[in-house]
Amino acid sequence: MRISLIAAALIALPVLAACGDDTPAAAPTVTQADLAKSLQDKGFKGKERAECAAKLFFDQGISQDALRLMVSNEYDTKAADEQTLGMSKDDAEKARTASTRIASECMSLPG
């Protein structure tokens, strides 16, 4: 009896899931902590430095799309358009501004 109920549930699950909303799920929000961890995972030395850098990227107002690109493995510093690195021109400009600030404000922190 239990096996029949489990089997019925497994069969019904895809059918019930198909009855849901057809709109795609919203992409997850990238937090400052997510970005700091990603920077460290990609070789940015020192937790304090990474947290400082993440804060500056957020302070610049970089879009969630660009932040998602930065934390993904698709972020390509050798992208076809070296000016934008796959981001919008506005986000790329904000990232350059943040990078300049990172060099002066974060690199003196312990790493």
Task: Give the arrangement of secondary structure elements.
Layout: H1 2-18, H2 32-41, H3 47-59, H4 64-71, H5 89-105
Helix pairs in contact: 2-3, 3-5
Provide the β-strand percentage band: under 5%
Order of helices and strands: HHHHH
User: In terms of structural class, how would the helical and strand content be classed?
Assistant: mainly alpha
Helix content: 55-70%
Record field, number of beta strands: 0
Features:
single chain, 111 residues, mainly alpha, globular, disordered N terminus
Structure at a glance:
The protein is mainly alpha-helical. 59% of the residues lie in helices and 0% in strands. It has helices at residues 2-18, 32-41, 47-59, 64-71, 89-105.
What does this 3D model show about the protein?
- This protein is mostly helical and 111 residues long.
- Helix content is 59%, strand content 0%.
- It has five helices and no strands.
- Helix 2 (32-41) crosses helix 3 (47-59) and helix 3 (47-59) crosses helix 5.
- The longest helix is centred in the N-terminal third of the chain and has 17 residues, at 2-18.
